[in-house]
Amino acid sequence: MIFAAVIDYRSDNPKVAEVRPVHRQYLAELKEKGKLVISGPFPEKGGALIVYEAGSKEEAEALLKADPFTTGGVFTSWVIHQWNPIFINRDLLPD
User: Is-above-0.90 flag for pTM?
Assistant: First the structure.
């Protein structure tokens, strides 16, 4: 199942730059394991979208809670929804 997490955080939080390298390593590991579908920040005022492949909403939330941005105090809140993508234009997705 696919789960989309809409996450809030402030991009001007000094912890973002400090924790970003381990956060990105964590996401790279999830991608290698087939647990990360796509992720990225919202450039306007902070926040992000992370889409997980998980067996349940609880598993998706556990993946989010284990993220160094969560454990490091960057992510402030989130909402997770099961998601059913219908159309995907892979030509528009970055590598």
Answer: yes
